[in-house]
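subagent[fold] <- orchestrator: predict structure for attached chain, return tokens only, no commentary.
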Amino acid sequence: MERFQDENKFLGNFYSEILVKCPKCESKATVKKELKENCECGKCHNMVFECKNCFHKLKEPVYLYIAYGKEYCNNCFEKFEYQSQPLKEKPLMYKTKCPHCDFQEEWKTKSYRIKEESKLDTGLVKDVWYNLSLWFQKEFDGSIFWAYNLDHIDYLERYIGADLRERNSKANYTSSLVARLPQFVKAAKNREKLLKILKKWKE
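subagent[fold] -> orchestrator:
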């Protein structure tokens, strides 16, 4: 009988290296921890994207900006709201058209930033730093089954393959990785199919 005892690991335990799809060449690439320059404590890290196939590398996410606001038109005096398309630079002023009378004027604007969407966007699960699609993911019965890296896969494989699953502490009863797994991963009826997916990923 296969036995699994919860090690109280969190998703963050698998952040050291996340395998993603490169937005330039579509090859397997990584988002991984890299020690910050001039760090003396040895604990300060950035999450860096790097593709060993096309040598594309990023040390920080690429951001786009959305201009938005509420104004009164200086032509028809009607109030309206506006929101721009994603912009490459943070705007201080934004020219927009009144939806009531088509009068155009420029406003001092507010803005917020978003991470640039990958051109390879598939609508699947992405990493939280660079918004890139995870390498290991597959649609399963209307949901997405995914993993960050091989260590994550091994942990899931041990859990899913176990006949007996034990919790070893109440301290993280509702917040550990195992506790937060979706029901389709926990269901015994899906065991064999999920294990086949994990085996294929490891190959």
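orchestrator: received. Logging for downstream: The radius of gyration is 23 Å. The chain has three domains: 1-15+149-203, 17-61+117-135, 63-115.
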